[in-house]
Structure formats: structure tokens, C-alpha cells
Automatic annotation (TrEMBL):
CDD domains: HTH_XRE (cd00093)
Residue ranges occupied by any HTH cro/C1-type domain in the UniProt entry: 12-67
Signal peptide: none
SMART domains the record matches: HTH_XRE
Organism expressing this protein natively: Micromonospora profundi
UniProt xrefs under InterPro entries: Cro/C1-type_HTH, Lambda_DNA-bd_dom_sf
Protein's UniProt name: Helix-turn-helix transcriptional regulator
Pfam families: HTH_31
A Gene Ontology molecular function term of the record: DNA binding
Domain of life: Bacteria
SUPFAM superfamilies hit by this protein: lambda repressor-like DNA-binding domains
Amino acid sequence: MTSDDLPIGRRVARWRVRRQMTQQMLADRLRRSKSWVDKIERGARTLDRYSVIQELAHVLRVDPEVLLGQPQGTPASTPDGVDDIRAALARYDTPQAPPRTDELRRQVGHAWLTYQHAHYGQLLRVLPGLLDAAQGAGSAELLVQAYRITSSLLVKLGEADLGWLAADRAMSAAGDGPLLAATATISVGQALRAQDRDRLALAVLLPAANRVLPQSSDCGGQESGDRNARKILDHEGQGEHRGRAVGGTLLVQAALAAAGCGEHRRADELTDRAAGVAANLRGYDDTHRTSFGPAAVELARVLVVASRGDAVEAVRRHAIVVRREGWRRLSAEYRGAYLVDVARAYLQVGDVRGAARALVDADSVAPGEVRCRPLARTVIADVARAQPAPAGVARLATLVGLTR
């Protein structure tokens, strides 16, 4: 039996011995009886309150997840369905009779909607078949979209390396389509950021943004950039707003990558530039599923501000942006992911209550974001360590398996 297979009481006993403590010594530090400790270690009494597990972990000088048999920051197991997606990515043969393009387009659209509603378990079941169909259909656009959905989901589920592979496949499938390649670059940047490779992500994202957006450094650069952007848009028959939305999304991702590198001034400059792009957008069909617009830029500003340690300004901006109409128009996935990210940012600047509020809000907006993502589970564990744990977090800890 491995240490992860042990009952929690046995793990308590092992760590007590490692710390050279008797049952009486542990009981005294917990202000409980020796009999209570003995029953916990023998399994005669159940540890069903996370606050008690926290107390034990504090005295034994370990993380609560160690007592629970789940090291901090790692999921309890690979989510059901990830191995099927891995197998689909490993197949290079195409199906005998690929679906018609219109049917495949319908399937891809349904997969996007499933993702945007944060129904990740359902998407796990759908994607292997969708990848097989897209690989045999001969449509670069739909294949890129299938790979992008796959990459985004894998990043959510803590499989960033596999997500990067799917994003790289999207880049290859884009071929000579500049705007299609730009959409694939969004996924590449997200996968690199998920691996804490922010500098690499910035090096990928910013040139891609510059290729699809007008340059603004000087008049000559503006004219040249306009020509390049028009050439890309004309090449793929897309409207100007669609190309700008892709470029704006690349700028937002680049800003977040710059913040992750500690380049806060550059992050501010990139969000300012993205805000300019968003301000020039009008109503358009979001063909490339970017969710880009003024609200997306303002959410990025909150995270950039929090990353440099300005908790007061981050909280102020956050309170404003979530009351605006643009916030409600964003997909459940986008809002839930932002709230998990802002919870992590608030933790980094020591605002535990702000982090707790963001997590509870994320669960109400998009439960899948909180209950399926290893990142959210780690943030919940960090918030739950506070004494006393903020209201609502104990329930979330139970939902994601941090209590037994």
C-alpha cells in the first residue's frame, strides 16, 4: 500500500512519528484528548471537517493535501476522457467516410458552445470523435477550430503539455492562412502561459498580433501595418472586425504574459493598445470565438494590476467591471476563468477575502471552472488555509475533494 492509499488517520500517525511526537504531545498541541488522537489514527473517528484537517496539518507542519493523500496542486487523477483525447491526437489515419462539411461545422459549433458553457465533462466525451472527423474532412478551418477547442480544454484540465501539442497541430493545420494561423497562435500562447513559460508566450503572441493589426509606432509603420493587415484579411475573405478581434485577443494574451514576466510597463502598454482595438470594434459575428471586446480588455487590466501587487486598485477595477453590461455578455467559461485567475491574483497580494469571494462567484457562474480544474482546486486549498476559513470556501473544498 502506498502512502496515497493509506487512510487519513494512518497518515496522521506517520507524520506524528516523523515529527517525534507522542499521541499525548499531539493532543496537547491540538488542545484535545489523547483518546481523540488515538481514535483518529485508528480510523475509529472520522476526520470530516476541513478546518480540523487544517489544524492537524499546521501542528504537523505539512500541507493539508499531504494528509489527504493528494499533493498540493495536483489533481486526484487524470480526468476520464483525457486518455481518449491523447489517443485521438496520436492517430494519423483518417476515417473511411468523413462527415459532410456542413455536418462537421455543426459539430464544431456545438463543441464551442459546450466549452463556452464550461460543460467540460461532456466535452471530454465529444472531442475524440470530433478530432477523428475533423482530421479526415479536409477543411483547414474546421480542423484548426477542433484543435483549438481541444487545446483550451486540456489547458483547463491541467494537461498543458498535451494542450500545447494540440495548439501546435492547429498551427500546422492553418497552413498558408495568416488569420487562421493567428487564431491558432492564441492557443499556443495560452498553453505556454499555463506552463509558466510567459516569456516564450510573449515572443509568440506579440509578433502574431503585429501581423494582423496596424502598427502605430509612426506614420510609415501605420501605413505598412495597414497594408499588411488588409492583405491578411483580404486573403481569407474575412471582415475587418473579425481580424481585429483576433489581433486584440493576441494583445490581451501578450499583456498577461508580460505581466507574468514582471514586465509591468509593457503589460500596461499592451492592454492600452488592446483597448484601442476594442474601442474601434462594432457589432460582429465572433467567427473565431475570441470573446474579445472592451470587457475582455478591462478584465485583463485587473489581472495586470494585481500582478504588480496593487491590490487596492485591482479590487477597485474588479468591482467596476463586473457591474457593467459587457461582463454579462461574456460566456460563462470566460467569466468563470477570469474569476479563478483573479482569486489567484488576490491571494498573491494577500487579499484572502477577495480571493474567496471570487471563487464563490466563479462557482455560481461556471461550476465546471471550479470543480474540474486543478488550478481552481489549488486556489481553494490556499484560501481554505486561512484562519478562520472564509465563508463559502469550506463548501467548495468539499465539492472538489479536499474533505472526506
